[in-house]
Protein 1
Amino acid sequence: MAGGPCGGRLHGALLLGIMREAPRKRIQPTGEAGQGPAEANPFLDRVGQWLIAIIATGVVLVVLIQGRFFLIPLAVAILLFSLTSAAIEFIGRMRFGSFYLPNWLASVIAVLLIAAALIALFGLATAQIDTVMVVAPGYAESMQEAVAALFVWLGDDVAQSVLVAFQDINFGAYIRTLAGQAGNLLVATVLVILYVGFLFAERPWFAAKIAALFPERRRAEDVDRIVKSIGRNVHHYILVKTAVSAGTAVVVYLFLSFVGADFAETLAILSFVLNFIPNIGSIVATILPALVALVQFEGWTMPLIVLLSVGGIQFVIGNVIDPMLMGRALHLSSFAIILSLTFWGAIWGIVGMFLAVPIMVIVMIVCSHVPQLRPIAILLSREGRIGEKRAGPGDGRE
């Protein structure tokens, strides 16, 4: 009994001390028995990364499609804001003696001018839609017969089959759907004006927000360089395209008015709008006047004259004057442009096709500044040479 209660407590204390002094061994996951810690499987890691990328891409696509009601006006507003901001900065640097225009006043004037321009464009679009709706039913029937006549040389049976196929198309339903889009166009116009107004209200704090987002000075300078590069290239593209499209529309209007074609004003406006869609737009803008001439005039002489003349105008301006003014600022791949048109056209419709090239320019410039994404920029470029090279830390060059 020598070991009584005191002995038990002594043994307990000794056991507790030994447990405290004993080294704690780290428990590591093991693979097979006796083979040590399990190693990561590179294949499984790569598969997991690809799965995450696929899921993220699906989520982005769903957001782009389901949110197009407000994303499209937002994209247009950002584009207009970027163009107008550059003009405001230029005006703000101008001095007329002791007089200068304050930034806040220039911003207010810019918002008012944008609102007035958008409302005027909306009024012009609705007026043209009303004109088309009045005369379209009669023209649709005549155009069906005229298009079917194009296939007479293949045989009467073929021409009759084409006519029946065209008669099955309910052009009236499409025209009514187009007219019904006027309400959506008005809502989109109002949203664009609101977005632009609030963007101008936030404009004085953009620089402070970038500095707060990127506290490191070199990183902030790189971001600022990327933003300026995007603005410079997009501005150049939009301004050149606007000037070239306006010139094309004026020449087309003068020619169609000279030959006495119907809808000269409407076709000129469509030519202006469609020229913002690369490659495809100019083709459509050439075919439409020829179809109108085919319905309006007897015989094939005048439709061929209209087709060749408008096609020549589009060819000369699009392949000679446009590249001369555009220069090598964008040097985008033609195949990549077609893919971008197809993708954004499927996501956002006609408006997406207008925004396809500016979005592609932004993607290429951002990718060219990120080493991991530089191969994407090379694929998007025409000759594999990236004009905007990524600046290293502390490098002030572009």
Note: Confidence is low (pLDDT under 50) at residues 8-16, 22-28, 388-398.
Protein 2
Amino acid sequence: MHSHRVLLMILAVGGLALAIAVGCATIPSSMAKKDFIGSEKCAGCHAQEYQTWQDTNHAKMVRPLKQGLLKDAGDNWAKDSKGAAGPTKGNIDGKPYKMEDVAYVIGSYWKQRYIVKNPATDNHQFLDKQWNRMTKLWENYGQKNDWETICATCHATGYRLTAYDSKNPAAQKVSMVEHNTGCESCHGPGGLHAQTTAKTDIFNPAKASKEQSSLVCGYCHVRKETSQFRTAQGNVREDQPHPVIGETYKAGQDDWRTWYPDGILIPGANPKQPLNQNYPKTDLENAFYLDELAQRHGFYDSRKHHQEWQEFIQSSHYTKNLLACSDCHRPHAVASKPKVEARATCTQCHGTQYDVNKIMPATGRTADNLFMRSHAFNKNQTRPGGPTATGQPLYYYK
């Protein structure tokens, strides 16, 4: 009887492997789940979407050292042009680490950070420096929490807390379907769709309401501070795990604005936490401009990065239900249509009426003398912007 069960298991696993190997083949009905399957599986039927997604920053957030290390960072690992030393130690254990110890690089377009193993938790810790791609200089970076428990819900797809004890956060366990913002980060779990291929069995932000579509982007393009769940080091988190242990955020199904409202700070999402208020001694302290210019215009531009959703919900694009984020930002090409360049979409409605540099000044600081553009779309904007990222990254091992 035991050998019979083993044979059945081998056959079942073999059948699943065969289905995956043949690309667009469906998952066996006996194993179909309304769960995540990974972006590579999507590529079997959606080759163009997958290939153009791979060229985006969504696909380049977390990569192994030899896939993603920036060329300038590698060339200047020992010290930069001003003599500043590159990464030399772990932020949590304080031990020395070399470039070859880096497990993953985080980011590439604006800046790049580096993570190595944290032996105490079997997670990953940050190194003490980050590379500014535009200034080509090393900057101090002091994040002292495990990557997996501080920001990974937005650096991975299908992120789950699989075990959590509030009295012992160091023992928490996590799982991810894949690194990076994969297909299912925006489309929700694809298991059922892969079996049926029915359009009704997958979430499509382009077919959703403007609010619901933008809500998908807002899950990550927002600044928040979570006390409901703590990092492995016992500190507040900067991301937002699903409130149910073992579950993950599902685009098109979950409204993250309603999750544990008393255990999270998200100005703009919670009516009790307005954008025109400061939040001292939190990660939201001085996150938005609250000066006389902001009060006069009624728009609160970002002073920190990844707050685009909190700016966008102030705009008439959002309040009048005119646009969703995806109307201007396309994470991949669609069918025979090429990927849309965000900057070019402005002229479709406004012609030459507005100058992008004026109406979208770069105000949100992401690194030293490097800023991200405001998405509040204040037509009377007069706030000056700073330098922003341009060009494309070059890689050390390519």
Note: Residues 83 and 137 are 9 Å apart (CA to CA).
Protein 3
Amino acid sequence: MAGIRDAAVVAAPAVRAALIWRPDCCKDLVVVARTRAKSWTAILDELYEGSWNPSLQRFRSPYAFRGLADADHPLSSSLVRLAGGADIRRLETALLRNFSKYAHAESSYADSVWDWLALGQHRGLPTRLLDWTYSPLVALHFVTESPEDMDRDGVVWCVNFVEANKKLPARLKRIMLREGSETLTVDMLNTFGTLAEFDRLARTPFLVFMEPPAIDRRILNQFALFSLMSSPTAEMGEWLDRHPTLCRRVVVPAELKWEIRDKLDQANVNERILFPDLDGLSRWLTRYYLPAASAGRLVETYAANPEKDARDRDRRARWAGGAPPRRTPRPGSRPR
């Protein structure tokens, strides 16, 4: 994306450990050379930055988070990726029309285009929506869920949806003010009978965040919400490029991914919880019991940090010697 580049931000008395993508246009930021993160706590500090809400006197982050295993992956919708050079509007109409026709028996509650749009996104239909979460830890899960991507930097996008709401059309602002909500819901959007009617609210594309209906436990457990552009052809990444102060990108270095992954597992942020069915359980067990030979990068990372505690040093010694990690549950206990 033009206008956003990779940098680290100065934080007295030392340089912040996490990598932050900041806009070139922000002249008030002091930018220094790229710095690799030293611990996952620095990543957490950046993800929770700006969480304090002075009016509530509570920590209530105004950010939505999206984690990607590859830092170079664009913020483009599955609909845009599917369309290629085709007519995206006609493709979107055809997809939703046929999805609602064939899926009706499985989702009798859906009675509006917004229900079908949310359900389709949730079930893998290419749509203009993107998946986000209120939880930075859930976002980190998606950065580190795939062992095949542990050798590349990941990223967590952080978008301030509260500030983004200030750029919405007046009609949407009134709806949200009346409901006392900072995000839209399917019920609020039902005011607009079609996507075309919604798209006509403004001449230029705008961005909203919507909470999906609680279709299943997966949506609840992932603390999920969707981003929605007011045009199927609009790219969210390009919109953020024009409004760079509304977002930041926290880069997760590849050498930290295994440490973050293990600590998320210990915090019970994993496939078994986020995808609470037998498929999710199988995915979690497959990754959790991955042989240590696949974690060579973690061995190198820990070998360069002798200050790690004794338990971690013991694990490094065993892994370096080719022994599998001691993941076997205690007798009579279940896998963590």
Note: The first strand starts at residue 4 and ends at 11.
